């Protein structure tokens, strides 16, 4: 496994639509393992393949005290409700913003073994799924800001103490 460099804005890969994966082979499984290691090293909650410079539809999410979730070709099939959340992003270091996210989502995709899975999520997992799946379409959380007043800088010390960058 390897820790991969995280792409930050304005890297073009962050604005591209990621490619659908047709075959899950050893290279895809290695990428998932490397993304998981990178996520843990960066103290984030979620990571999408474009954030490590690879335009493929893969996300990994690790909610504290839960198992790591790796999804291939994930898509949101249902959203419920709306709530305001504060988000950060490993690809936009030094900032947080207040945006609206769903209160619950249902997502389908493939697990690393190629089995179709369907997840119903609320809370932080719901938010992380929306955030990471947005990355696969070239959408960043700052695109959801109502206005620039909702984006604010955070100090490096504050950023290190908050393990909620997605």
Strand order across the largest sheet: 1-2-3-6-7
Span of the ends, CA to CA: 21 Å
Q: Main beta sheet: strand number and arrangement?
A: 5 strands, antiparallel
- Taken as a percent bin, the fraction of beta residues is 25-35%
Rg is 15 Å
CATH superfamily: Peptide deformylase
Give me the CATH fold name.
Answer: Peptide Deformylase
- Helical content stands at 10-25%
Shape: globular
* Oligomeric state of the chains in view: single chain
Identify low-pLDDT runs. none
Q: Count the E strands.
A: 8
**CATH top level class name:** Alpha Beta
What does this structure look like?
This protein has a single domain, classed as Peptide deformylase (Peptide Deformylase, Alpha-Beta Complex), CATH 3.90.45.10. A hairpin with a 5-residue loop joins strand 6 (104-110) and strand 7. It is α+β, with helices and mostly antiparallel strands. 22% of the residues lie in helices and 29% in strands. The protein has a five-stranded antiparallel beta sheet. A three-stranded antiparallel beta sheet has the order 4-5-8. It is globular.
Tags for this model:
single chain, 166 residues, alpha+beta, Peptide Deformylase, 5-stranded antiparallel beta sheet, 3-stranded antiparallel beta sheet, 3 helices, 8 strands, 29% strand
Compact description:
This protein is α+β, with helices and mostly antiparallel strands.
